[in-house]
Amino acid sequence: MTIKKVTRQEHDCDYFVALKSYNTGEALHFLPIPKLHLLFIPPFCVLFTAPMEENSSLVAESTLTDAMEAEPQEEERDPESNPLNEPLLKRSRTLSSSPLAIVGAKVSLIESLDYEINENDLFKHDWRSRSKVQVLQYIFSKWTLACLVGLLTGIIATLINLAIENIAGYKLLKVVGYIKEERYLMGFAYFTTANFLLTFVAAVLCVCFAPTAAGPGIPEIKAYLNGIDTPNMFGATTLIVKIIGSIGAVAAGLDLGKEGPLVHIGSCIASLLGQGGPDNYRVKWTWLRYFNNDRDRRDLITCGASSGVCAAFRAPVGGVLFALEEVATWWRSALLWRTFFSTAIVVVVLRTFIEICKAGECGLFGEGGLIMFDVSSVSVSYHIMDIIPVAIIGLLGGFLGSLYNHLLHKILRVYNLINQKGKMHKLLLSLGVSLFTSICQYSLPYLGQCTPCNPSFPGSACPTNGRSGNFKQFNCPKGHYNDLATLLLATNDDAVRNIFSTNTSTEYQPLSLVIFFLLYCVLGLITFGIAVPSGLFLPIILMGSGYGRLIGLLMRPYSDLDQGLLAVLGAASLMAGSMRMTVSLCVIFLELTNNLLLLPITMIVLLIGKTVGDCFNPSIYDIILHLKGLPFLDANPETWMRNITVGELADAKPAVVTLRGLEKVSRIVEVLKNTTHNGFPVVDSDAVVPPVGMAVGATELHGLVLRAHLLQVLKKKWFLREKRRTEEWEVREKFTWVELAEREGKIEELAVKKEEMDMYVDLHPLTNTTPYTVMESMSVAKALVLFRQVGLRHLLIVPKYEAAGAPPVIGILTRQDLRPYNILSAFPHLAKIKGNEKRN
Amino acid sequence: MTIKKVTRQEHDCDYFVALKSYNTGEALHFLPIPKLHLLFIPPFCVLFTAPMEENSSLVAESTLTDAMEAEPQEEERDPESNPLNEPLLKRSRTLSSSPLAIVGAKVSLIESLDYEINENDLFKHDWRSRSKVQVLQYIFSKWTLACLVGLLTGIIATLINLAIENIAGYKLLKVVGYIKEERYLMGFAYFTTANFLLTFVAAVLCVCFAPTAAGPGIPEIKAYLNGIDTPNMFGATTLIVKIIGSIGAVAAGLDLGKEGPLVHIGSCIASLLGQGGPDNYRVKWTWLRYFNNDRDRRDLITCGASSGVCAAFRAPVGGVLFALEEVATWWRSALLWRTFFSTAIVVVVLRTFIEICKAGECGLFGEGGLIMFDVSSVSVSYHIMDIIPVAIIGLLGGFLGSLYNHLLHKILRVYNLINQKGKMHKLLLSLGVSLFTSICQYSLPYLGQCTPCNPSFPGSACPTNGRSGNFKQFNCPKGHYNDLATLLLATNDDAVRNIFSTNTSTEYQPLSLVIFFLLYCVLGLITFGIAVPSGLFLPIILMGSGYGRLIGLLMRPYSDLDQGLLAVLGAASLMAGSMRMTVSLCVIFLELTNNLLLLPITMIVLLIGKTVGDCFNPSIYDIILHLKGLPFLDANPETWMRNITVGELADAKPAVVTLRGLEKVSRIVEVLKNTTHNGFPVVDSDAVVPPVGMAVGATELHGLVLRAHLLQVLKKKWFLREKRRTEEWEVREKFTWVELAEREGKIEELAVKKEEMDMYVDLHPLTNTTPYTVMESMSVAKALVLFRQVGLRHLLIVPKYEAAGAPPVIGILTRQDLRPYNILSAFPHLAKIKGNEKRN
Fold first, then answer.
1. What's in the GO CC field (chains A, B) (predicted)?
2. DSSP state of A768
3. For strand A760-762 and strand B27-33, is the pairing parallel, antiparallel, or unpaired?
4. Do B833 and B71 meet the contact criterion of CB atoms below 8 Å apart?
């Protein structure tokens, strides 16, 4: 890496950062960077260290720099006055496509997934020869797996709930006991130590065994379904760490939920089931071999994700819609039905456990129960004036949601700096947050006032001394309750239930609600990035309900809407403002609160929240995706993509590497060793076998052969002494489609003898003869639509000319080539058009 | 048409039917038809009449013959022994693609829609030059239109409800009055006459003014969103007839609902708003010009359809999901949000009206109210034994649903025979059904027993004499009620409410329920096909609730589930068995019955119902689509489509008609007159303008030009004296993109002078330079995926060879070419593969 300090006068920036191509080592990309920005470039992005000139601070730039920040820099740069004297023209015409992303605080090489149907001779023969019984087997296994995913997700979700409720419950009972005896310091010590230890367990597991288990996992699942295979995301270790870590972190009273992790857990279960167990101990059951492809795994993981949401919120329809709206990139109605089946199973499992626990056999579980913030007792009647508090909540949700996204983004960057420094730092950060949380939760309630119990309040006894309940006595005299303790010294689920409680309009003091809201704003921002499994749903619900109820309190003279209801609306609005979902959130809230009459106002709040939020920044999941450098393809192409053709993109890339239909072994080995491409076009020139009726000089695009299949050829040594086309039975004798479905192996591990190097391979039967193609005159916008809609990994570019001797394929597009940021760095003039458009 | 009788010994069939090509008049297609089948071929399918040989019965075959019946015939036929001595080889290699379908009992030419983005110079210039203000205008109009669609749909739905409740209400009050006075015959006469007149109004309007308004309209909307433009479906006349006809038909007590028609009404409103009014009186408002394209209209109609469902069931989320699951072919999350907005508006409108009507200002409306079958009062607790009645109901729903589909299919074919005979026959059929319905509804209750009122029944007074209510006195003494009258002598909405009523386990006698169920089975089958606006939802709900409640009655000793609940489940199961929806039905039922605890069992019932139904036949909407001959493209390609390439399809079609980039006017006129194609590939050969660096003999595919744009050129007489490429400003001076967006005009209406015939046209600026292409080696299965996923009208086939002088495009695929039935008739060997696969 070359880093050069230039004077501020020259470029209004302090540093130039050079990025080298991952493959060729050639310098590709130069970015001027203001000194202040260095703070926000996480050092773990340092991909290449190199001697520096004039200045010795360590700077780097990677795919991480998000487009939002890169664009103004692009405009600032003047290509004519480049102080590094590098071939700028070359640079500006080259597409960089570094397939790197951050996975669990490590920079990893990301593989794309291939959702296209590979129609080579072997696979085709397999389909044709599949008997009715095998087809039925396949269908039966598909549904069995969907059922198992639901079943296991449901069981694990119940066990997690059970563990959390019991651990947190006994912890809180003990603390309440100390407080009752007025041993406040002892209570504090016990509370803090317990939380500290629980966090320690969760964080150590995450840090040492499965860094990918930290965080919610939803962005990575979203990326997987978009076609990006993040390594180690769906392994057995990740699953186990996620389960135990989630129990520890939630029981430790941290400001995070088990909802996001449950989605990840569901997906892990689905992935493991589909491939027959963890990587090293796979069950090679014949029935499962049909699922050894990216398409079926994608479907299973979609089922898993919706089961997870369903298990988290007991919202079966909401789970399906969440998967549909937020997570999935491709969707078809058959999948709708199968995910629905999975979530139905989850609900049945949850209901069964609830019935069992009602009998009191689950310890403290059952008192709090599965979360279900029931506000169905409220009778809703609207008046025209109610629109004012509802609109205010919606607007606030939008503003605060986008502000939350913005701040969280900044904090995550700073956290990345800290996490990068080593495992110890990660651990200390988590424990620090845990300590801070415990101190606040225990000490702040002393600021709350003691309020006498009001006999008109419905439901639970007042004051309550137990673990859960709406009117905590805490440090108050008999017959009084401390409203702040009710909110803070409880599990998160209980806190939500308490703040959602209806018909209790005088329960909370404004000051308590303000303290509660501010505390959870701070906690929500600092907790998410630490190295434990953490969901975003619950922190946002807590924050949102805080200001929702506060507005209810303030608007009391003008509106009859119940405060509990407004707390629900506040939570919904903040979720809409931050996560930007509509229909799925609406249904989740519907199923969560069990009150259908809330529907119209929930819808209005969600619409306002999302609209306002969209004016400022993208959704929180998109921000995290971006921050992790995952090459996610958006649904809508940018408008400037209509002004560039795929032919121009192909020109900016190195020439396409093609193979001949009958290829020498040495050439295959050479190509595999020297490139990292995953697909190679197979071209027949008439020098080999001139097709009947073709003029001399004709070339033919036979199709696309995958790297994995070439490796199989080399591994099995299917070499021919003479240069000839093989018969179909020859290849079928050597390969089965099951072997071709495997994606393992590396070229470095294979040894090819010297005498074999001169032999030939007939690539025809292994070539996918029906790759999707676009003409070179196709605009990038339309190519992107095709790429995403059909779920491709490679898109071949064919010439629009018919001419003798011309190559039948002039380029190959992959996911990275179609990313707006990469295109803009190769074609800066497009950015200017974009800028102009914006200015107009 | 040539029809020949052959002996049964020869072919095991009586008749041969020949189909002629619609364009060339050439005989394309021969089908042997057993005599019995003649009965089931509706005579309105007679496309060509011709002298017959040996036999004089009128036989015809059209696109109507569905694949299910055609396949066995294909197998029976022996191509070697063709008695007609026609060139069978030619036939079996030719793709027939007759674009004909039944629209409102008339056979019409169907146009496809074009959802692809046309990237020609003019449109591209327009996008580039659109100012920020114009973009905001567009976005603002989009949301305003979505809002207006919701608003108008909500208002019209309320007005329809109001009219129906009042008309039917006063009618029933009068009848009840006569019965109270024991003037039974007078009551009968009044009841029958009123129903007769109401049906007469509805039917006359449908028959004379808007035949497309008959039926539910949902299949046509589904087809529209798939890319098929059924003529006269979304006009102003259709809308008005649909509204009035729906009021008449429902108020007449016919066994049909207003739900399907409301979906159609919503879509009509959306379409009319989008194009600025009815065809002849369009408002040419500049803001609306952006919506003059198929893509935006598609989005609007999706909004309209979901608003319609929302208005019908007061189910906003259900409406969105219905559009997503059942109606829409393409979907994106931006649309999810906009439809959600529309349905939110509908709900607000409905709620406002309900508030107004609660004050008693809506006549009889408000007593019955908007349909809302509230069963929220039931406290649901499940036991393991409850699974038995639930499973039985699910199974029955699947069986009966598919049986209903099967029988309805047959009856609709017979009805088509009758309707074809003329307007009078259509009218008489409708009136006959109305008479039969009235007689049954009035006379059958006399079979019901009088039961003494049970004071433990909740809610309404017993017996009730008013229009609505649960315990109709009818002919019974005081203190008694007639349970059959409660079900039959009420509006359909009331009947559903009464049979769904909870905590009334002894209200209905088994015999009454059996009579109710059987009557509505018969009515449900005979009513749907008559010439009035009719929905399928309500008849199916009525049937389903009948057997659901009956099973509840029978299972009473074994299960504690409420009978009203089982009636709801019965309705859900039959809908799943017939319509095959899952998630959307589940949410609609949730919102309809207002009981979230029902969710798990509803899900199970729906899953069982759909699974069982899918074993027998496709969903009712698919059957109707097929019956109407609408060329709907299914989401999943057939497995045998992997065995045929698009190159083979192209060979079976006439050679593709291409134009040159600089083309003579005479050639354009000739091509437009002699073909019906809508798109022509534009090919540049180097004889014209050799591109730099291209060898002699090179040809270039420039793109695809649309018929509409060629017509515009001829209309505007944009001819060049010399053969030269034009500059961009020249074409922009002559054409605006607004003109190009118009799709009107016919070649016959244009006059081109003789001296103009020798001039030239530069087609380059008008050509869409980025059409989607596939290589000839692409399998039809994958081409179909591309065609449907991207929403194409034309798909160009390019050769896989690069050779001098070869044509750069070898074929063009349209919707008709990709339909399984058409491919199978051209390639019968595929059907054999398919048959073999089935047999295996």
1. chloride channel complex; plant-type vacuole membrane
2. B
3. unpaired
4. no
By the 10 Å C-beta count (0-12 exposed, 13-18 middle, 19+ buried), A698 is classed as buried
A65 phi/psi in degrees, rounded to 5: -55, 115
Minimal Cα–Cα distance from B503 to chain A, Å?
Answer: 21
Q: In DSSP terms, which residues pair with B679 in a beta bridge?
A: B706
Q: How far does the CA of residue A808 sit from the closest CA of chain B (Å)?
A: 6
- A336, A698, A802 ranked by CB distance to B583: nearest: A336
Q: Would the pLDDT of A580 be above 80?
A: yes
- C-alpha distance across the termini of chain B, in Å: 38
Q: Which residues contact B89 (CB under 8 A, 6 or more apart)?
A: none
Residues of A whose CB is below 8 A from B607:
337, 340-341, 344
Disruptive mutation site among A802, A829, A840 for chain B (greatest number of B CBs within 10 Å)? A802
The string of DSSP codes covering A346-363 is: HHHHHHHHHHHHHTT-ST
- What pLDDT was estimated at residue A375? 63
Q: What are phi and psi of B28, to 5 degrees?
A: -115, -30
A144 vs B420: which has the higher pLDDT: A144
**Under an 8 A CB cutoff, do A695 and B804 touch?**
yes
Return the CATH class of domain A391-446+491-627. Answer: mainly alpha
Q: Which among A347, A607, A772 is the nearest to B344, CB-wise?
A: A607
* Strand ranges across the sheet with A801-802: A801-802, B699-706, B679-685, B659-660
- Contact check, Cβ <8 Å, B340/A603: yes
Contact A798/B773, CB-based, under 8 Å? Answer: yes
State how far Cα B774 lies from the chain centre: 30
Q: Where are the domains of chain A?
A: 3-92, 132-358, 391-446+491-627, 639-839
Pick the CATH number of B132-358 from 1.10.10.10, 1.10.3080.10, 2.40.10.10, 3.40.1170.60: 1.10.3080.10
- At residue A611, φ and ψ (nearest 5 deg) are -60, -45
With CB atoms and an 8 Å threshold, state whether A808 touches B786. Answer: no
Query: Helical H runs in B323-479?
Result: 333-358, 387-420, 423-443
pLDDT at B171: 92
Do A132-358 and A391-446+491-627 agree at the fold level?
yes
Class for the domain spanning B639-839: alpha beta
| pLDDT mean across residues, chain B | 79
Q: What pLDDT digit, counting tens, does each position of A25-40 carry? A: 444 344 444 443 433 3
Q: Which of A343, A351, A771 sits opposite B382 (nearest CB)?
A: A351
Q: Phi and psi (nearest 5°) for A733?
A: -70, -35
Which DSSP symbol is given to B725? P
Specify the pairing of strand A801-802 against strand A760-762: unpaired
Mean pLDDT across B546-569: 87
Q: Two tokens at A105?
A: 């605080």
Residue of higher predicted confidence among B366 and B41? B366
Asked whether the beta carbons of A230 and A310 are under 8 A apart, the reply is: no
Residue B636 in 3-state DSSP? coil
Interface test with A, best of B770, B789, B832, B839 (most A CBs within 10 A): B770
Chain B CB contacts of A307 under 8 Å are none
Residue A70 in tokens: 């890169």
CB B429 within 8 A of CB B203: no
Q: Closest Cα of chain B to A251: distance in Å?
A: 29
The per-residue pLDDT for A107 is 61
Q: What is the ipTM of this complex?
A: 0.80
Give the gap in angstroms from C-alpha A602 to the nearest C-alpha of chain B: 10
Instruction: Give strand ranges (E) for A21-73.
Output: 27-33
Structure tokens at A169: 């419950």
In 3-state terms, what secondary structure has residue A4? strand
- A333–B320 CB contact, under 8 Å: no
DSSP B720: B
For residue A557, say if its preceding peptide bond is cis, omega within 30 degrees of 0.
no
